[in-house]
């Protein structure tokens, strides 16, 4: 199995992952710090799911917000969750089939790259992403880096459980269990950081950088600094900041 591209059967359960500590206190925090440096404008949230990043964009004034996801059930959840909000809409579409009339100045993309089938698909997707971003725009992408480690190297409990015993090669799929109730199994595809950078460069992006990990102080206060230490020492997620 390559990846769970069909999220319809998982939508209700996957929505609960928004409350996992690393999502609340690391993902949102890193994105917020980048967005604080940008001028509010229209924004696009790719692989939006139930609206985890869409809500942050709305909160911070990057409106109107457009969320795009290939899962009909995810889009239904997002529409229901934001039914009383203005300046936000959700579109069911494969990312590759989404062709807006004008590009966006701000794009967020959570975990999108880890659902590419292989390096060719990764290259093609990065080329399409460039067409969606305006010439002066900024894109923030969350990447799953758990394939860089084997399960014996990981002892923290703030992220997912993994099962592969050795670091993975580009295009290898892997299983992880997200610690929600009940636990949720997801399959994703690993790509080396250098491979992702190369794909972005080949697509023509002028600036591609990995952002340093940082934590919302509320997360440290809630779980303690020690709980986050291995997550920082052996990052299991990465954040890319990309410019046209």
3D architecture notes:
With 244 residues, the chain is an alpha/beta fold. The protein has one domain: Vaccinia Virus protein VP39 (Rossmann fold, 3-Layer(aba) Sandwich). It is built from 8 helices and 10 strands. It has a 7-stranded mixed β-sheet, sandwiched between helices. Strands 6-7-8 form a 3-stranded antiparallel β-sheet, with no helix packed on it. Strand 2 (65-69), helix 4 (72-81) and strand 3 form a beta-alpha-beta unit. It starts with 10 loop residues before the first helix and ends with a strand. The model has no long low-confidence stretch (mean pLDDT 93). Pfam families: Methyltransf_25. InterPro entries: Methyltransf_25 (IPR041698), SAM-dependent_MTases_sf (IPR029063). GO terms for molecular function: methyltransferase activity.
């Amino acid at each position: 199995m390559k990846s769970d591209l069909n999220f319809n059967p998982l939508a209700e359960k996957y929505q609960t992952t928004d409350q996992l500590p690393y999502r609340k206190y690391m993902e949102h925090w890193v994105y917020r710090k980048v967005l604080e440096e940008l001028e509010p404008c229209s924004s696009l949230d790719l692989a939006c799911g139930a609206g985890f990043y869409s809500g942050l964009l709305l909160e911070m004034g990057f409106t109107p917000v457009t969320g795009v996801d290939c899962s009909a059930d995810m889009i239904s959840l997002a529409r229901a969750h934001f039914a009383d909000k203005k300046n936000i809409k959700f579109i069911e579409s494969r990312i590759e089939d989404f062709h807006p009339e004008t590009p966006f100045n701000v794009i967020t993309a959570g975990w999108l790259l880890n659902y590419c089938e292989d390096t060719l698909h990764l290259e093609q997707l990065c080329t399409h992403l460039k067409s969606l971003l305006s010439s002066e725009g900024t894109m923030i992408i969350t990447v799953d880096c758990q394939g860089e480690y084997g399960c014996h190297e990981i002892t923290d409990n703030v992220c997912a459980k993994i099962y592969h015993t050795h670091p993975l090669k580009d295009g290898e799929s892997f299983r992880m269990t997200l610690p929600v109730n009940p636990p949720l199994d997801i399959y994703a595809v690993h790509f080396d950081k250098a491979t992702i950078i190369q794909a972005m460069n080949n697509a023509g992006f002028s600036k591609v950088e990995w952002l340093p990990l940082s934590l919302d102080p509320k997360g440290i206060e809630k779980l303690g600094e020690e709980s986050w230490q291995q997550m920082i020492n052996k990052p299991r997620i990465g954040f890319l900041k990309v410019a046209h």
